[in-house]
Amino acid sequence: MNMFTRGLAAIALTATALGLAPAAQADEVTVFHDKPFYQAGWDGLTEAAKKADIDLKFSAYATDQFQAFIQQSLLSGDAPQAFTWWNGTKLAEIVESGQIAPLDELWEKKIAAGEYDASSAEPFKVNGHIYGMPTGINRWIVLYNKSLFEKAGISAPPTTWDELMATCEKLKAAGITPFNASLQEGWRGFVWFEELLIRTNPDAYVALNEGKLKYTDEPVKKVFEIWGDLYAKGYFTDPASQEEQLDFARGKAAMYLAGDWNIGLVEAGGLKAETDFGGFIMPNVDASVPNVVIVEASPLVISIKGAENPDVMKFADWYLSAAAMDAWATTPGLYAGNKNAKVPNTIIGEIAKTAADGNYRSMTRYWEASPSEIVLPAVEEMNRFMTNPTKEQAETAMKNMEAIASQYWASRQ
């Protein structure tokens, strides 16, 4: 069983039973996705496309249904012409199907025209070829509520781990929960796990995702010790919430570790970026560790079938334009790489400058960095720890994750 088949099997559901089918008329371009919360952005893109004589449609599904739909489509050899996906191992898995079109020539044209830096294409490369266009290139940062910081007597965001811990203590003393964190939609369990690992040992994070480090090894144990201690001190909100962005907007916690794609969703909850909340890159636990930041890049891919359709390739060329990016990314508050497009909000601009000035190393998000067959059950273990953050549960989680990972890596030899 190759990587493609194994990876898709890890997210297996029966798409036929869900009644999903990649139907699209010949004269329109339909993009399938699992991001209905960006509907305003998709609507803006649809309207802008009309001005370019492109009949554009979007079709949204819940994430589990969407993964099942794409899996079934690829296995049957009938992939949709255009759809969103994930980068890293997730992208490599579907590229191995042989049904995803390389977009090297399109990117060469855009880079030569000065619209993009070559670095914007890097997250979408598999075996040296580019297989996606960005819907977002997002850093994972800490958003902070300025009024709650002021209430607790905190004048500026922390720049060291000790300052971060002191900030948490001041917030607690003022009756404010420091961090917002939940299991919303079932996948968020890895967020703090990956963040603490890169902030204590980024090389160990890379080794873990490559099968060169065990989930029972010391670097992972240290993560669970720190994570458990933060829970013991009462620094987190109830993980059962299904309204994570709204919880932060409502002031249920002062800080929120999240992809910067959440900025627009927080604004939809009533806070204004920069005025009501700001952002900072979480400081390292170990001050000797180089500057690092998690980067999540979400591609829009074109299938081989789509690449053979002139209407689809006309859309792809237009999609990478500043006009398209302004229509799409501004409303959700996303940065998607086009140098001529608007910067969606001041927080993203400031974080980009911080990352550049500090020579931050980009680390691929755990969801995309590690194989699907490990990630999905491992996240369930992390979720269980968040609901029962004890030493015993941590030991169980590490043991179970290592059993999953060791079996996977053994099958690859």
What does this protein structure show overall?
The chain is an alpha/beta fold and 413 residues long. The chain folds into 2 domains: 3-137 and 298-344, 3-Layer(aba) Sandwich (D-Maltodextrin-Binding Protein, domain 2); 139-294 and 367-411, Periplasmic binding protein-like II (D-Maltodextrin-Binding Protein, domain 2), CATH 3.40.190.10. It is 46% helix and 14% strand. The protein is built from 20 helices and 11 strands. It has helices spanning 3-9, 15-18, 39-51, 63-75, 89-95, 104-112, 146-151, 161-173, 190-198, 202-209, 218-232, 244-249, 263-268, 304-307, 310-319, 322-329, 346-357, 366-369, 372-387, 391-411; strands spanning 29-33, 56-60, 82-84, 125-126, 129-130, 133-145, 179-180, 255-259, 277-280, 292-302, 361-364. The strands form 2 sheets. Strands 1, 2, 3, 6, 7, 8, 9, 10 and 11 form a 9-stranded mixed beta sheet that branches. It has a two-stranded antiparallel ribbon with strand order 4-5. It is globular and about 60 Å long. The two termini are 12 Å apart. The model is unreliable at 11-26 (pLDDT under 50).
What topology emerges from the helices and strands here?
Elements: H1 3-9, H2 15-18, E1 29-33, H3 39-51, E2 56-60, H4 63-75, E3 82-84, H5 89-95, H6 104-112, E4 125-126, E5 129-130, E6 133-145, H7 146-151, H8 161-173, E7 179-180, H9 190-198, H10 202-209, H11 218-232, H12 244-249, E8 255-259, H13 263-268, E9 277-280, E10 292-302, H14 304-307, H15 310-319, H16 322-329, H17 346-357, E11 361-364, H18 366-369, H19 372-387, H20 391-411
Parallel strand pairs: 1-2, 1-3, 7-8, 10-11
Antiparallel strand pairs: 3-10, 4-5, 6-8, 6-9, 6-10
